[in-house]
Amino acid sequence: MANAVLDIENVDVEKIDEEVENELKTTVTIAIQTETLKKAIGKVERSVSKKAVQDIFKFIFIDIKENKLTFRAINNEFLTEATVSQNEEQSNFKITSGNPGSICFPADKLVPIVKRLKAKNSEFRIESNIAVIKSGRPEFNLNGIDGSEFPNTPNLEEKEATISIHPDMLRVMYSRTIYACAANETRPILTGGHHILNGKQLKCVATDSHRLAQFAYELDNEYPDVKVTVPAPVMTEALKHLSDTEMEVQVHFYSNQIVYEFDDAKIYGRILDGNYPNTDVLLFKSEQAGSSIAINAGMFKTLLNNSTVYNSDQPIIIRIKPGLNQLRANTREAEVGAFEEDLSTVNGAGEDVIIAVNVRYLQDALAHYGDEDQVKFIFSPSSPEKPVGMRPFIGMLDNGNEECLELFVPVRTNQIDYNKDVEIENFKGIPEFEFNPFEEEFKEIQ
Q: What separation in angstroms does the CA of 237 have from each of 81, 105, 271, 282?
């Protein structure tokens, strides 16, 4: 009995703990197609937090199972998960020795290594949280940490709805609205896109208080009412994944998360707290307009680009005589010079308009229209208390869905006397007009 006690006292507990810990560490070797590895890493690398307080947010998590590899990366806004399922031939990847497990590697080292792999196939050999990565002649050693230290996927609360939508349509919806989200966090709720699911309609609205973008789409099925505001970075990341798939995307709305499910990836995004403002009160229909015009998008974009030569931060002043199909834009810089350009509108109706607008806001909106598109602008009726030039106005595709629109808040400037009649003298925007500085000289020769 005394000998037994003596044996226990001589046991090296630290050594046993170390052996157990080593046994629990991932020890595995996998063969994988290099392009398969690059594609999976590429799907999650954008989600790595570059300035995170928590070091683990700077890592990429890899979970290795017999028939599936899972890659994850996380930041303060969202977590991205990419999966590689083993094909029947086991030609995309396979475990060649060892046991399944998980490990994390610093993204700033793993990503450059993977991008440098050139051979068709690569090998990952992991032992005691150290990886040896081989592809052809090069061999890289990389230290990692145990996969148990990486955060789990978010706990999902009650699901409110799941929709299925074609990636092209969601891509258009997001590209037409994200740009109008607020960049600063004075009002955090405005830094995201407000998603409204109502019956068969999905609508996305974004505004920074100076402009508004809205896009609506009719779905195939009826859904319960859902209203959630998704941070712009989450929408932007989803938008990047939409370019890589042709399969319908499942969008899951939870009370605390939004989850985008692609064929081989998922994005878990947080939902912004707070009540989004009722933007419907700012909008009006074409039949309620005091005046309206339609104009060629390509020509108007060129005009706006020309107007930024002197100072892109200064508003542009636009005069419109809808009945005469005339539009004149100009800027004035006292120390530099002036810009002026005339365009003929395709059609127009209603009272004359003079308005000052932030050029960049117009450019951001028009960037999503084709050069051959016709853009329609509609203006509220003027009143003695508030002339039309001080009221928000709306832009949309001519003869398009009136719920897919942009709204702009004019800039107030002392360069405009809003109570004076709108005048455009010596209009030079008629289609047949071509500026020819030699015209008088040719007349004299004749």
A: 12, 22, 15, 29
